[in-house]
Specification:
seven-stranded mixed beta sheet, 10 helices, globular
Length: 279
């Protein structure tokens, strides 16, 4: 029997699948800065020149690497990704959830939607699990050296990738197809078949878009941070997310039970819809 339909699980990366920011594991220590120094300088530059904070952090990465004589090759960023540590259970999560979907003849696709760096994510041990990684990226010259931003993903333009997934447009470059009218029931991944997982403010527009369009949004927090759940509770109160739970992806965890229950609900809704259509 073929897959009956597709569910898209869309994740932010920093603070969602891995603690902290991905640049903090390897890149920032290599340029001899503290995390606080690096981000303060990038954000101060944005404020001073009224610029986008994502573009200024990318500019600082290029400047700092050049000044310290570090490699700006794609492979060097990917090497940095090998040092990123993940939340508990993330490594085994994808195959378990895929299996859960397959048992119900549902295809599960995983996507990244992040303001972090695509090249670093490509170097992590879970990069192969994703259908597509939407994230910031650099342009590279003929010698393979990063020199300019190719893609900058901030909290509002993150929503464009939700529409790309919805319409089955994988290319970042293609803006024609994503803007073409396709009836909702003909789209490869309807919003009601989406589960968005993020960890806070930069994900709010995406979480709200998915939730308000009939999908499910989950805000996760670092289980080691005291009071983190309480801080995110306002997102439920403000009707921005459906659920809040710890970023613990092990079998039997709250997250594991929640996502499987959402898959069950989407499954039952689909069956009910088909029964109603028969009448």
């Amino acid at each position: 029997m073929d897959d009956r339909f597709t569910i898209a699980l869309i994740y932010d990366f920093d603070g969602t699948l891995a603690p902290g920011n991905m640049q903090e594991y390897d890149f920032i220590p290599a340029v001899g800065k503290s995390n606080k120094e690096f981000w303060s300088e990038a954000n101060a530059l944005a404020e001073e020149q009224d610029a986008d904070m994502v573009l200024t952090y990318m500019a600082r990465m290029i400047q700092e690497a050049k000044s310290k004589g570090l490699s700006l090759r794609r492979e060097a960023f990917q090497e940095s990704g090998r040092r990123v540590t993940l939340f508990q259970g993330v490594r085994e999560w994808f195959s378990r959830i895929n299996r859960y979907g397959a048992e119900r003849h549902i295809r599960i696709l995983h996507y990244i939607n992040s303001s972090g760096l695509k090249e670093i994510i490509e170097g992590t041990e879970i990069a192969h699990e994703f259908r597509k990684i939407y994230a910031c990226a650099f342009l590279y010259d003929v010698d393979g050296i990063a020199y300019w931003p190719a893609v900058a993903v901030n909290y509002t333009n993150k929503t464009q990738f939700i529409f790309k997934i919805n319409k089955g447009v994988e290319s970042v470059f293609d803006s024609k197809l994503v803007n073409r009218y396709i009836p909702e029931n003909e789209r490869p991944v309807p919003f009601r078949h989406m589960i968005y997982v993020g960890d806070g403010t930069t994900d709010i527009p995406c979480m709200r878009l998915v939730k308000n369009s009939g999908g499910h949004s989950i805000a996760v927090y670092n289980p080691d941070q005291k009071g983190a759940r309480k801080e995110l509770a306002s997102l439920i109160r403000d009707n921005r997310v459906s659920h809040v739970c710890p970023a613990d992806y092990r079998e039997g965890s709250e997250m594991d039970r929640l996502v499987k229950t959402i898959i069950d609900k989407i499954d039952l809704d689909d069956r009910l819809e088909k029964l109603e259509a028969v009448k």
